[in-house]
Design goal:
Blueprint (H helix, E strand, L loop, with lengths): L2 H14 L4 H15 L15 H13 L2 H45 L2
Helix pairs in contact: 1-2
Length: 112
């Protein structure tokens, strides 16, 4: 039942003489106060790079067993090393053959 329906029923009871003016006011205040309660707004999913998302990832990471934390950290380090070696190799081949030579080699490798 909406607050407006409840208030209209209370008014009918007041008009019929079932409720006194004081009872009506007290009940009306209860209904209006209850309807003004702030309902929590659903929070949207924070962006990946937001501080809130970083805090949530950090809390989730800290709940993991120590061995799993170390495994994840080593995986991140390994991926970083892989990309560093890849970038160095790419720079080496660009210096050795020039960009057009590297591009031609990649095209030959992929069959274009």
């Amino acid at each position: 039942m909406s607050k407006y329906e409840e208030l209209s029923k209370l008014k009918e009871l007041l008009d019929a003489g079932v409720l006194s003016k004081e009872e009506f006011e007290a009940e009306k205040k209860k209904i209006l106060d209850a309807s003004e309660e702030v309902k929590p707004t659903p929070t949207k999913n924070p962006g990946f790079f937001s501080k809130e998302a970083a805090r949530q990832r950090q809390e989730a990471f800290e709940k993991l067993p120590k061995a799993e934390q170390q495994r994840q950290q080593m995986m991140v380090v390994g991926i970083g090393i892989f990309f560093a070696i890849f970038a160095c190799m790419l720079m080496f081949f660009v210096m050795l053959f020039g960009w057009s030579g590297v591009k031609a080699g990649i095209e030959n490798l992929w069959g274009r």
